[in-house]
């Protein structure tokens, strides 16, 4: 029996970010879908033209190195059915806007994809794309159905060539059979007859299971307010400075790659940047924080987003403090939302009261208050218990059957 017939469902050619770079929603869903179908994952083809910076030059070097030397290397953190999953490193010109550059890029990628399909015995695939710029390469598999998984508002996303990407997204909308959006707000951008809202899921068992290890690099001696994720311009640094200044007796922990200037934060002795961590280690950190924070700026990008970490924070049971944004819609009763009447630092203190409330055993009302606080932590975890990635992948699977 050929490999393509050994799995139950049609194979997928996936255009996404670099595999393993961060645990995106596409990666979570593809891990589940990959258990019953062959998958070819194409690492990022870019959302902007590279610049003459150290970061971009290093990224180009690594792309070329991966293309030349890691063609057959097994990838870490891949779906359960290892043999039917392959990652390729496309050597394409990001945001190719000339006939010649696109022609060269398409020729190279076509060769890579054809070779990968041959190795996995893939025929009749469905094209899945999370990047609008992939639309230029859809005709490599002429006639193949395409689904667009939109997790971000690319028209407002930081670090994107907005004009180029928006133009490509318009073209992709026309070619897509279905458009899956990660937030309710995103779905209103697209034709109603094509769009389906698929909210983010969560690895509930990973984040809700009690952590049995205290990370060695976690500062001790003070209560902790923590954040993990990309440290970028969507963090409200002015708000953070005000909050850190108001709470000198707290430690503030940031986990993730630093993609913006953080000089204003690094001047504080109680601010600690711990770098990036692998996904499965994150529960050990968040469960040892007093409060998990989401200090986002108020802009269109944030109002359109649906951050994965929100559900992971909830699943951990850790008290949460956040600025206000649309994706909080179904969870507002479980978290502290800062506003003009309740500044962020005050919201942190209120959230921390859940685990620092003193109990006077001569006062039954205080005991009842503590029981209510414990119940709130349990209900916070329960609020996302049914929102697994397996459930989200099954919802998408039903639409893939109709492609």
Structure description:
- The chain is α/β, with parallel strands linked by helices and 403 residues long.
- The protein has two domains: 3-201 and 388-400, Glycogen Phosphorylase B (Rossmann fold, 3-Layer(aba) Sandwich), CATH 3.40.50; 204-382, Glycogen Phosphorylase B (Rossmann fold), CATH 3.40.50.
- The protein has 15 helices and 13 strands.
- The strands form two sheets. A seven-stranded parallel sheet has the order 3-2-1-4-5-6-7, sandwiched between helices. Strands 10-9-8-11-12-13 form a six-stranded parallel sheet, with helices on both faces.
- The protein is globular.
- 37% of the residues are buried.
- Residues 1-6 and 357-364 have low confidence and may be disordered.
CATH superfamily of the largest domain: Glycogen Phosphorylase B
Report the sheet with the most strands, covering strand number, pairing sense and barrel closure: 7 strands, parallel
Beginning-to-end CA distance, first to last residue: 24 Å
- The side-by-side strand order for the widest beta sheet comes to 3-2-1-4-5-6-7
Radius of gyration from the alpha-carbon trace, in angstroms: 23 Å
Number of domains: 2
Number of strands: 13
CATH class of the largest domain: Alpha Beta
- Secondary-structure element sequence? HEHEHEHEEHEHEHEHEHEHEHHEEHHH
Mean pLDDT: 86
C-alpha geometry:
globular
């Amino acid at each position: 029996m050929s490999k393509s017939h050994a799995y139950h469902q049609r194979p997928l050619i996936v255009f996404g970010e670099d595999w393993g770079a961060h645990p995106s929603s596409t990666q979570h869903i593809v891990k589940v879908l990959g258990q019953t179908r062959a998958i070819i994952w194409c690492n990022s083809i870019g959302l902007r033209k590279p610049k003459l910076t150290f970061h971009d030059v290093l990224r180009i070097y690594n792309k070329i190195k991966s293309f030349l030397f890691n063609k057959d290397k097994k990838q870490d953190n891949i779906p359960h059915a290892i043999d039917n999953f392959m990652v390729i490193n496309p050597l394409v010109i990001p945001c190719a806007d000339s006939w010649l550059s696109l022609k060269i890029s398409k020729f190279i990628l076509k060769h890579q994809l054809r070779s990968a399909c041959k190795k996995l015995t893939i025929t009749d695939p469905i094209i899945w794309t999370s990047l609008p710029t992939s639309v230029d390469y859809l005709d490599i598999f002429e006639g193949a159905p395409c689904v667009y998984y939109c997790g971000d508002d690319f028209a407002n996303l930081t670090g994107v060539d907005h004009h180029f990407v928006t133009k490509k997204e318009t073209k992709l909308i026309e070619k897509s059979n279905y458009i899956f959006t990660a937030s309710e707000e995103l779905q209103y951008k697209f034709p109603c007859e094509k769009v389906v809202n698929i909210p983010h899921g969560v690895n509930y068992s990973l984040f809700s299971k009690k952590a049995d290890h205290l990370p060695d690099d976690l500062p001790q001696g003070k209560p902790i307010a923590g954040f993990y994720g990309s440290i970028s311009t969507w963090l409200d640094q002015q708000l953070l400075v005000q909050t850190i200044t108001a709470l000198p007796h707290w430690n503030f922990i940031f986990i993730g790659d630093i993609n913006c200037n953080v000089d204003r934060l690094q001047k504080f002795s109680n601010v600690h940047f711990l770098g990036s961590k692998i996904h499965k280690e994150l529960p050990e950190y968040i469960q040892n924080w007093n409060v998990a924070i989401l200090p986002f700026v108020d802009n269109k990008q944030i109002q359109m987003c649906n951050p994965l970490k929100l559900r992971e924070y909830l699943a951990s049971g850790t008290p949460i403090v956040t600025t206000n944004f649309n994706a909080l819609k179904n969870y507002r009763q479980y978290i502290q939302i800062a506003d003009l009447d309740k500044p962020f630092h005050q919201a942190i203190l209120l959230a921390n009261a859940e685990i620092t409330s003193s109990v006077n055993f001569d006062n039954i009302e205080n005991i009842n208050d503590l029981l209510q606080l414990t119940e709130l932590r349990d209900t916070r975890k329960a609020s996302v218990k049914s929102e697994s990635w397996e459930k989200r992948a099954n919802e998408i699977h039903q639409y893939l059957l109709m492609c």
